[in-house]
Design brief:
This is Penicillin acylase family protein. Keywords: Calcium, Hydrolase, Membrane, Metal-binding, Signal, Transmembrane, Transmembrane helix, Zymogen. Belongs to the peptidase S45 family. The protein is an alpha+beta fold and 806 residues long. The longest helix has 31 residues, at 2-32. The protein is globular.
């Protein structure tokens, strides 16, 4: 017995020693990839010494003797802090995520290959101007020099994720940067996804289905979708469900997502300090680390500071000494779905305008982690690539014997968007910047500009031209052989300027007649005669929901309580308490209030109750609120009140009944989660942002460390846009938001402020991994000066690059 005890003791001690050693080794190898910001490196690819001065917040201020050396150092700094993220973005554009994530990423790779994101980017390299090519080449060399340093000095493979997702890190190429820009363009456009949804609505209820989207763009009158394909058979719509909380974080920039932003500016005459103001807050998936990265570059034309995306050598939104600029996706219908009829018995032939013709085909191989390679056949019609997997609902509207294809302006293989964005950094005034911005192809965008004397806002990019005889005006998928549905051309928007409204310009990505955020932003900017940096910050952070202010008075018109209180604890009393709170509410989506939660749950339940019986299983896929639709129903605009009657029930329901039933349902659901006391509920308990790490965030035990969870104010229609997921047990959890905010004051440029949603570093063990996250959540900013002396005085680290002597 004593011998057994001794052996058990020895085994226990040995196990503890092994565990401790394992933890020590894990910590050692993980920390090896933390960059030393005070190091000196001898590198190839620069002509003179370069300094990377790191501020307190780990923002690199880069000083070199020429622009190529500065871009080289930016590439090295990006790789120091975000190497894994850069390779992930590159893989997403290349269609190679499956090599590190396995079969769950296959559909994303398949779509990226079919859209030819990387091929078109590679062919566009030669279309860039000389300065951009020099910057892309130098930037790539900087990334590659850091990869070489990692290999030579055994710096933990460059990032801890590479130990868990083993892969060879191939050297960076200029085409990689262009491919990431293509990926962003694809994610910014939701035109094709909206077409698909509109067609599904038309099929679900031909008479009124498209009411749901009518105020959000597209022609007022549309044909029944099925009438475009006489005699065609359609399958019964599939019932799809998404697992609670499922988010494809490895492919966080997905084609068709539809990203957003606000951009606004004021003339010097409208500002307190007599200098132009500009604000910009591009949306992004809320991941950890943030998609954005702050940087300052000392170029030959002067200092440039603002937001970059690791993998690209450009300041996308920022300022130089004389000019500030911001980018907003433009609501341009830049894509169409065409249904190609396949010749029976010949899968490689399709119906063209004059008969059956061959599809162009190319076979590619997708390597899948821990599984055999998969062969895919890429096929192309005269309209574009065949994309059967573009959208989950696409199969519902594809006739039997047909395959969908996609025509998209972003498919250009002579795309000069990178050169245009690069040129903005060198521009010294709005007129010159506007001319440079004309080179943008995809995504179409509103560019907001401000210099010391003027402001300007212009729409740039490529837009399709459609004939007046087009059968749907681009609002629905069309038969691929119909020449009347062809684009008559692709026109460059050529910087068509937006008018200045009393010294103010503003833009959002919203389309249609009910642009709620735009109307709220316009009111905020015109409500005061003189603006300051602080008033622009307040507008950018505004959390009042114009949707709530518009909907509550008409939805609750017959429900506001005026009688005796019901018994405490009863459902009637809960309803009365909820209505009393909403009656006094100003629409502010404050995380500490119960009213935003009651309103959001009520409107979600109301919309679901309105559409469920008419749309059937498709209602599960309507995950965003459509305020214009609810407004039309309760005002009975064009007979829209017909949605209130539940067809399957014997009585005829009116809208007041549906509104009351929906409120009761919402209160019941909220009571189960948050208790019976309506006044104790808090919007922030349900409205949270989970910044998920694309690798470590999916590992039990690590996700609580690397994923950042924050309660947030705001909502889907506030100026500070924070939309919810719309499904699962956490429908109000937000997955996207303003990943970067910047406000630029040209009267006192160094008082300009910036923030990103996490921290600068992508390394979970770095103190800069999440040091900006709380500031971002609270609506605070950091300053970034172009004064070199200030940058060096506040430096927490200076990396010196010296040319390697041959």
């Amino acid at each position: 017995m004593l011998t057994l005890f001794r052996w058990l003791l020895r085994a226990t001690v040995a196990l503890i020693v092994v565990l401790v050693l394992t933890m020590v080794l894990t910590w050692y190898f993980a920390t090896r990839s933390l960059p030393d910001y005070n190091a000196t490196y001898r590198v190839q690819g620069i002509s003179a010494p370069v300094e990377i001065v790191r501020s307190t917040e780990n923002v690199p201020h880069i000083f070199g003797s020429n622009d190529e050396d500065v871009f080289f150092a930016l590439g090295l700094a990006h790789a120091q802090d975000r190497l894994f993220q850069m390779t992930l973005l590159r893989r997403a554009a290349q269609g190679r995520l499956s090599e590190v994530y396995g079969a769950k990423a296959f559909s994303a790779d398949d779509l990226a290959r079919r859209l030819e994101l990387y091929r078109n980017a590679s062919e566009s390299v030669d279309m860039q101007d000389d300065a951009t090519m020099a910057a892309l080449t130098a930037y790539s060399a900087g990334v590659n020099q850091w990869i070489a340093q990692v290999n030579e000095q055994a710096l933990g493979r460059g990032a801890p994720e590479f130990f868990l997702r083993p892969q060879n890190i191939s050297y960076w190429q200029p085409a990689d940067s262009l491919a990431i820009l293509k990926l962003i363009a694809a994610a910014s456009s939701n035109s094709a996804a909206t077409e698909i949804l509109r067609a599904r609505l038309s099929m679900a209820w031909p008479d009124r289905g498209t009411d749901l989207l009518r105020a959000e763009g597209g022609p007022a009158a549309l044909p029944d979708y099925t009438s475009l394909f006489p005699g065609a058979r359609f399958a019964i719509p599939e019932r799809r469900s998404r697992a609670d909380g499922e988010r494809s974080v490895e492919n966080f920039l997905r084609p068709g997502d539809g990203l957003g932003a606000n951009g606004f500016a004021a003339l010097p005459a409208r500002t307190a300090a007599n200098g132009a103001l500009l604000a910009n807050d591009p949306q992004a998936p809320l991941i950890s680390p943030s998609l954005y990265y702050l940087a300052r570059l000392q170029l030959s034309s002067g200092g440039v500071i603002g937001a970059t995306i690791p993998g690209m050598p450009v300041i996308l939104s920022g300022r130089n000494p004389h000019l500030a600029w911001g980018l907003t996706p433009a609501p341009i219908d830049d894509a169409d779905i065409a249904m190609e009829e396949i010749q029976p018995g010949s899968p490689d032939r399709y119906r063209g305008p004059t008969g059956w013709v061959d599809l162009e085909s190319r076979r590619e191989v997708i390597r899948v982690l821990d599984e055999p390679d998969r062969n895919i056949m890429l096929r192309f019609s005269r309209n574009g690539p065949l994309v059967p997997g573009f959208d989950a609902g696409l199969s519902d509207i594809t006739p039997a014997g047909f395959v969908p294809s996609l025509r998209w302006t972003g498919s250009s293989n002579s795309d000069t968007t990178m050169s245009a964005l690069m040129g903005l950094m060198y521009a010294s005034n709005t007129a010159g910047a506007a001319k440079i911005a004309e080179g943008v192809i995809a995504p179409p965008m509103n560019v907001t500009l401000a210099d010391n004397e003027s402001i300007r806002q212009l729409t740039v990019g490529a837009a399709p031209e459609r004939a007046a005889s087009h059968p749907t005006g681009g609002a629905l998928p069309v038969p691929g052989w119909e020449t009347s549905a062809d684009w008559t051309g692709i026109v460059a928007l050529n910087g068509s300027s937006q008018s200045t409204d009393n010294g103010i310009v503003l833009a959002t990505e919203e389309a249609g007649t009910l642009a709620l955020r735009r109307s709220r932003l316009s009111w905020l900017l015109q409500d005061r005669e003189i603006h300051s940096r602080d008033s622009f910050i307040a507008a950018q952070l505004d959390m009042v929901s114009p949707a709530a202010r518009a909907l509550l008075p008409i939805v609750g018109a017959e429900l506001w309580f005026t009688g005796e209180p019901a018994a405490a604890g009863s459902p009637e009393r809960q309803r009365q308490d909820a209505l009393n709170l909403l009656a006094e509410w100003d629409g502010a989506m404050n995380e500490h209030l119960p009213e935003p939660l009651i309103y959001s749950a009520w409107m979600a339940a109301l919309q679901n109750r309105l559409i469920r019986d008419e749309l059937g299983p498709m209602a599960d896929d309507i995950r965003v609120l459509h305020p214009a639709f609810i407004d039309a129903v309760f005002r009975n605009r064009d007979g829209a009140a017909a949605w209130c009657d539940v067809v399957q029930s014997a009585p005829t329901e009116d809208c007041t009944t549906i509104a009351r039933q929906s409120l009761d349902r919402a209160i019941l659901d909220l009571s189960e989660k948050y208790g019976p006391d309506v006044t104790s509920w808090r919007w922030g308990d349900a409205h949270q942002a989970r910044h998920t790490h694309p690798v470590l965030g999916q590992i039990a035990g690590l996700r609580w460390v690397v994923n950042l969870t924050q309660s947030l104010s705001g909502g889907p229609f506030t100026v500070s846009r924070m939309p919810g997921l719309g499904y699962g047990t956490a429908p109000f959890e937000t997955a996207t938001g303003p990943g970067y905010r910047g406000v630029y004051d040209l009267a006192d440029p160094d008082s300009s402020v910036f923030i990103i949603s996490t921290g600068q570093s992508g390394h979970p063990l770095s103190r800069h991994y999440d040091d900006l996250a709380d500031l971002w959540r609270r609506g605070e900013y950091i300053g970034m000066s172009l004064d070199p002396d200030l940058a060096r005085a506040a430096a927490t680290g200076i990396t010196r690059l010296e040319p390697e002597q041959n």
